[in-house]
Specification:
This protein is α/β, with parallel strands linked by helices and 918 residues long. 36% of the residues lie in helices and 23% in strands. The strands form eight sheets. The protein has an eight-stranded mixed β-sheet with strand order 2-3-4-5-6-7-9-8, with helices on both faces. The relative contact order is 0.06.
Length: 918
């Protein structure tokens, strides 16, 4: 077992562990995006690539070192090193599928199996240099190297090869110059990512992604392929809407059977269109899509929106057609939105792009949205227009064959016209990547999402509609919680929250002032706010005295301030302004119910005046209106911004609570992943390479103890024995008092079988306990399932906790934390988070359970060592990240001892996935 490097505080010294970048596709296969926005195909080299690779290497460099590294000796093309050399080569290709050209290659050469250092190099075609290909190859080779056990790269660079040297300098890795001569520099570096290397990688990817999507949102010209003479056809409607909404650029109809469409000359092929085309909107039968995209690629089109259905959503044949479509587009460096989508919009007055078949072109605003459902997209645009919510850009992503929500998040992160991002999701393509991007974007701009498929019926509907299975809702909730994504349960709720976030500042605290002209709505508002975690504190005395000067004696001056039914518009203005100026409140909710004494227009005017006056004094607090009349407006406009108006106080309270929760998330430090120096990951992997372990199933206690020791998990341990006599000898060796438990691979709940006997203080009691356990199973006819007895030291009285791990097929490991023992199943007081956990995640998990007060000390019971519990969660997170073979884990109970005494895992079960499942 590794030594315990604990300092005087009892806490292990911590370094930061930095997650490697997460590529959109596999590290050694899939799409890559160049700095100019073009795409290319990356894949591993195979034997069939040998001649082409050798020709590329000889054509690209005269450096004998690079030629040797790629396995090419000058002139003869034979492998440069002996049979022990392990070489991995990645290729980047562009061009038509039948004639793809090799534009870059990277190599990592390991001198011998098991070596932890390898030599690395790369070559980029002269015309493709400066587009980030060298950096991409280095990042991917480093990621693959880490997964295969490599720790360092080394490289020799010619001094005159500035391009290659710049790639190393810009990588963010800590370079060590080992040797320099007049013409060469030899460097080495650790390939474990650090904060700078990851930040630079994400920055490069963000720049490339934004460049690749710019032709969708800022096209200079648009071609509609499939523009028909039939005014009801989808292609014709798209063409008409582009014209009717005054797109600021030429629009070309493409139709092989028509010379004119909508009084505009048409072209038989996009190849016949004069001048460049940035964006092609494709609405043709599914079998015609690939020939059309091939022509688009040859035309140099950078972006295509494929409206056509009939792809992956229809089954395996459609999936194959979609895969061929994506491969074709990537070879040409072209990006695709769709297929099976509504299209996209950009309401910027300088662009006015409606490349969709939506008849609604919403007002310009600062909200961008993505929807997986085209039909819902139509309804969303209509609803946004009706409520006056301004839209910046809208994208219907359809099947997400290429452009995904992750890509759009990165575009909107950098888009100066977007302040709020809305998502309607039916599935996740790469949830871990989504989490990482959303966590970063959410620090700048709120992300508000509706995720369908909460129920079994919803799962079925979502699966049939999008050809993708809905993910586990537990995992989705955990992902959103960690990434700061605001989750709305319904589309109506999403727009209620969006109306607030789009135009009002975030609340700086949870204290809300409520102003009303009727007691009933005020009480409903106070109840709703308090029920959602906000506060309605009483009016401070000084403010109360000022209210007395404004309101009649019958008014209630406490919070809610009930001005009674006779309230005038002037009183609304004075009271609301006073409550906004009161520093004891962070937000205000103003309610009005028409009783026939004052017109609603006068009240809304008074509310606007009060808000305007507060803004002029530099007071920035969110204000929500609840206008309960049937003719109430959906929003109140004040100097170009809107005060959202709700029909009922519960909706307003819910929106404000979501905004406060997001503001709180954003105000807290991001957190980091600690890297404990006492971990022995290689030893743990060796334990799991044991033939018995590789078959999968539940591990025995000996392997569990060894595994936990490798990660510094505080396992109470003990000894597994076969007979009562052996148990007594083990108890004497451990020291009394002890606990005796049955050991069984099949009987999970020991207490149900009388399989746990506590506080045994002498040898005879231990033997009797073992015999009693055996008798219980014998009476039940289950004695054949008794594998032995576990003897452990008796742990002092402490708070019982449960920590578990389950693996979601899409999201990976989820860690569960809650009260242990019987509390788990009775109270279900459990929270989940997706690994890897940051120190912030662990801290929030422990405090999120309802039973946290027990850990603080309750009614005479001592407090628990909360930092030790948090460290247990962090170490466990690292273990399941490093060992993907672990499919399931249950630590119950975990005893949280007094402060400074740590915690102990008393009972543990670990199940491995079968080797074939890995």
């Amino acid at each position: 077992m590794a030594s315990d490097p604990r300092g005087p505080t009892g806490q292990a010294e911590r370094r930061e562990y930095v997650e490697p970048p997460i590529p959109q596709d596999a590290p050694d296969a899939g799409r890559v995006i160049l700095r100019d926005g073009q795409t290319a195909i990356l894949r591993s080299a195979g034997e069939a690539d040998r001649e082409r690779l050798q020709a590329f290497v000889r054509r690209s460099t005269r450096d004998p070192q690079l030629r040797r590294l790629f396995g090419v000796e000058e002139g003869d093309g034979v492998p440069a090193e002996g049979p022990g050399c392990q070489r991995r080569i990645l290729l980047v290709l562009q061009g038509e599928p039948a004639e793809q050209r090799l534009v870059a290659a990277g190599v990592c050469a390991r001198p011998a199996p098991g070596a932890t250092e390898a030599e690395v190099g790369f070559l980029v075609e002269e015309g493709r240099r400066g587009l980030g290909l060298g950096s991409i190859l280095l990042e991917r080779l480093a990621l693959l190297g880490i997964r295969s056990g490599l720790r360092r790269f080394r490289a020799e660079v010619e001094r005159e090869n500035r391009d290659m040297w710049k790639v190393f300098e810009d990588s963010g890795f800590d370079l060590v110059r080992e040797e320099e001569t007049d013409d060469r520099i030899r460097v080495s570096f650790a390939i474990q990512p650090n904060r700078r290397s990851v930040e630079l990688s994400e920055q490069r990817e963000r720049i490339a992604t934004v460049a690749s999507l710019r032709p969708f949102f800022l096209p200079r010209s648009v071609a509609v392929v499939g523009a028909s003479r039939d005014p009801d056809a989808i292609g014709r409607r798209i063409f008409d809407y582009l014209i009717w909404n005054r797109f600021n650029g030429p629009v070309y109809p493409v139709n092989p059977s028509a010379s004119v469409v909508g009084s505009v000359p048409a072209y038989r092929s996009i190849l016949e269109v004069p001048g460049p085309v940035d964006l092609a909107v494709v609405s043709v039968p599914a079998q015609a899509v690939l020939p059309v995209l091939d022509e688009c690629g040859r035309k140099g089109v950078r972006a295509a929106v494929v409206i056509t259905a009939g792809f992956a959503e229809t089954g395996p044949e459609g999936r194959q057609l979609q895969d061929r479509m994506v491969e074709l587009a990537r070879g040409y460096g072209m990006r695709i939105v769709g297929p099976n989508c509504l299209g996209l919009l950009n309401t910027d007055p300088e662009i006015r792009l409606n490349a969709s078949f939506s008849p609604v072109f919403p007002p310009h605003g600062r909200v961008s949205m993505s929807s997986q459902s085209g039909a819902l997209g139509l309804a969303i645009l209509q609803y946004a227009t009706a409520m006056g919510l301004g839209i910046s850009t809208f994208v219907s992503v359809g099947n997400k064959a290429d452009v995904s929500g992750n890509d759009l998040l990165q575009y909107w992160e950098e888009d100066p016209g977007t302040d709020l991002i809305l998502l309607y999701l039916e599935s996740f393509g790469n949830p871990r990547r989504f989490s990482r991007i959303a966590r970063r974007v959410g620090r700048k701009k709120p992300i508000l999402a509706v995720k369908s498929g909460r129920t079994a019926a919803g799962h079925r509907a979502a699966g049939s509609h999008t050809a993708a299975l809905a993910a586990s809702e537990t995992a989705v909730d955990a992902l959103f919680e960690q990434a700061g994504v605001i989750r709305a349960d319904t589309l109506e709720e999403m727009f209620d929250i969006a109306a607030l976030l789009a135009y009002q500042p975030l609340p700086r605290g949870r204290r809300v002032a409520v102003v009303t002209n009727a007691g009933g709505p005020g009480i409903l508002a106070a109840d709703a706010l308090a029920g959602m975690g906000l506060e309605v504190p009483e009016t401070p005395e000084a403010t109360r005295r000022r209210l007395q000067e404004i309101l009649p004696p019958a008014a209630s001056l406490r919070n809610p301030v009930d001005m009674i039914a006779s309230a005038t518009a002037g009183q609304y203005r004075q009271v609301l302004q006073l409550m906004l100026e009161e520093p004891g409140y962070d937000a205000a909710m103003v309610l009005f119910i028409p009783v026939g004494l004052v017109p609603i227009e006068e009240v809304t005017g008074a509310v606007k005046e009060a808000v305007r006056a507060a803004r002029e004094k530099g007071i920035e607090k969110p204000v929500l209106a609840v206008m309960m009349g049937l003719d109430a407006p959906s929003a109140l406009e004040v100097d170009g911004t809107l005060i959202p108006s709700y029909r009922f106080p519960e909706a307003a309270a819910r929106a404000l609570a979501r905004a406060y929760r997001y503001a709180s998330w954003r105000s807290e430090p991001e957190g980091s992943i600690p890297d404990f120096p006492d971990l022995d990951v290689e030893r743990a992997r060796e334990l799991l390479r044991d033939p018995l372990a590789r078959r999968g199933g539940w591990l025995d206690q000996e392997r569990i103890a060894g595994l936990f020791a490798c990660f510094g998990l505080p396992y109470a341990g003990g000894r597994v024995v076969r007979t009562p006599g052996e148990a007594a000898e083990a108890a004497e060796a451990i020291g009394f008092p002890v606990v005796v438990k049955m050991v069984s691979r099949t009987l999970l709940h020991k207490s149900e079988w009388g399989g746990v006997v506590l506080d045994l203080r002498e040898r005879g009691a231990v033997e009797a306990a073992c015999r009693r356990i055996a008798a219980n199973l014998r009476e039940a006819g289950r004695e054949g399932e008794l594998d032995g007895f576990l003897v452990q030291p008796m742990i002092p009285e402490a708070v019982e906790l449960m920590v578990g791990v389950t693996t979601d097929p899409q999201f990976g490991p989820l860690i569960a934390f809650g009260l242990g023992g019987i509390h788990v199943e009775v109270l279900r007081d459990v929270v989940f988070r997706i690994t890897p956990l940051t120190d912030r995640n662990a801290r929030e998990m422990v405090r999120a359970i309802r039973g946290y007060r027990l850990l603080e000390g309750y009614r005479g019971h001592p407090a628990a060592d909360v930092p030790a519990v948090e460290e247990l969660l962090l170490r466990l997170s690292r273990m399941v990240e490093e060992l993907p073979e672990i499919a399931e884990l249950d630590l119950n109970p975990v005893m949280a001892l007094k402060p400074g005494e740590g915690c102990r895992i008393v009972d543990a079960r670990v199940r491995l996935a079968p080797e074939s499942a890995g």
